[in-house]
Queue: 3 jobs
Job 1
Amino acid sequence: MLSHFRHKDIDLQSLCPIRVGDGTRTSFWHDVWWDDMPLSASFPRTYVLDLHKHVSVKYRLSMGLGVHTLRRGSRGGVEQEQWNKFIGLLQDFHLRPVPDRLGWVNDVSDTFSISSARKLLDGITLSNGGISTHWNNWVLIKINVLIWRIRLSSIPTRERLSYRGVMVDSILCHVCSSTVETVEYIFANCSELISL
């Protein structure tokens, strides 16, 4: 199911960021919980030096921020620069007494709902055709549907069938055989059909 969305360039994971509470269920280095990428990608040199690569946020923070958590101390340059940024970032971070959870950026309450997900996916995947649909209750439903399909140009005319690879004898109007059979031509311009 998720691969279907990835093929349509819909990244559901970015819409559900991790909200760290007590830090027990979030991977310190590999989950995206700070900024927009894992800490292993933000601080690659510090990650390589760290002795504890597969631990939770809670466990890593409980160890403290000293160099004793590294294979060796930094050797200056980029390593030292990343280490200083890393320490600065974590000194201001505090765990809270609530469980870790996923957020939902598509709703102001930050809580996932089927309704908000459906609205998001419909907005991305469904084409509205640029026009709103107004149903007339005094007309039969099949007439409403026909008018709706005409407005969206989704009637299977000979031109559309040929474009989709269906073998047709000719793409000319089957009534008058003078012009290409399009939705507009059938319902507005074909002199033979207008006279009916």
Note: The chain has a mean pLDDT of 80.
Job 2
Amino acid sequence: MHDVVHDVAIFIGSKEKHCSLRSLEASPMDSSSKDSSRSCNRMSIDISIKNARLSVGKDYLNLRLLMILNSADSKSCEGFDADVICFTGMEKLNVLYLSSINIRSFPQTLDLLKQLATLHLEYCKVEDISVVGELTCLEILCVQHCGNIKELPAHIGRLNHLRVLELHSCKNLERIFVCVVSSLVGLEELKIIKWFDKWETEGNRS
């Protein structure tokens, strides 16, 4: 079983402390919610309502696994602002799972997740994943059905601990430079599924 699937399966069936929030609005949480959130190590958040906000800070210091998803159709989050998701204070996070999130770029605070080992993206509108190259402990990067990604950026080559790279059904992916993949010294498994046959060497870079 793929590690990210394994992690999510554990999350769903776990008896450990976790929170499941259908929506997290911009208004402050009450004291009882804050007390509960401080002890959470696994959390799922549905952002399918407008004005949803995840502002983490000191209230989620123990999180290890976070799922952010949109259970409705993508139009319900049209124009969703990446900056309303704040990862400050989540330095212990190990697994981040994003599904059907209509954002064009990652939150600026993503690079704070220095202990993140698994990043899974599916059906997201993100166009540039360069900031992922700052996640120096990342071991698994899985990108599925993200149709706006056109190139595997050079910054990904910085991920010396990356063991698994999966690019699945990213229909507009145009270029992967061989030098980027060859820089991934710890890579054990590379999966590129559907809609890609355009490997390029450094000399082909325009």
Note: The two ends are 39 Å apart (CA to CA).
Job 3
Amino acid sequence: MNKLEFAFMLVIWNDILQSFKKVNKVLQNEDLTLLTCANLYRSLCDQLEKMRDNFDTIEMRSKELLPDGSYMITRKRIRKKMANDGNTPDVDLSSNDKFRINAFYVIIYKLRIQMDSRGQIYKEISTRFDFLCTSNEKVNVLACAQRLVSNYPEDLNSELSDELIQFHRYVMHKNGNSFKFFNQANLYKIMWEDKITSAFPNVGTALR
């Protein structure tokens, strides 16, 4: 228990789990957009990257937690020289450098890869579906609808774009000629509560 690695792990995992817990709580909100979910995961990647650069600060906090602690001393391994090794001497790392490189950096790297992967998934889905939730005239509804239909040909057909334009107009009339930004859940709720799903079957399928 007097090893500094133990205190370091307590500090770093507390920081990581606190950040993950806050983001996870927000992700439970059904009103979130897909793009917001993607950006939340990207923010976690940035947070991990920042943590990676703050090894010395985390080490200092660990020493405050365990003032008499020290890194575990490992025996230096004698590596057999190979013919093509040349005359370059082996690098003798300090105990904290070994921990930083072999443990700390590995943890941060693996977590960042996982968060980036999840963020990319949300971003890809967002790119496919976000046009369903905006009345921005700069968005090419026809092109976006065609791409979505090509991705889900068994569930959607070419009537999606016309249905979506009409559905957006319905929502605008319902909200006093304004169309604020809705997410998929909000729009599907309107469709379900107003019992108009049969009028926009492709839109309903896409929003689900």
Note: DSSP finds eight helices and no strands in the chain.
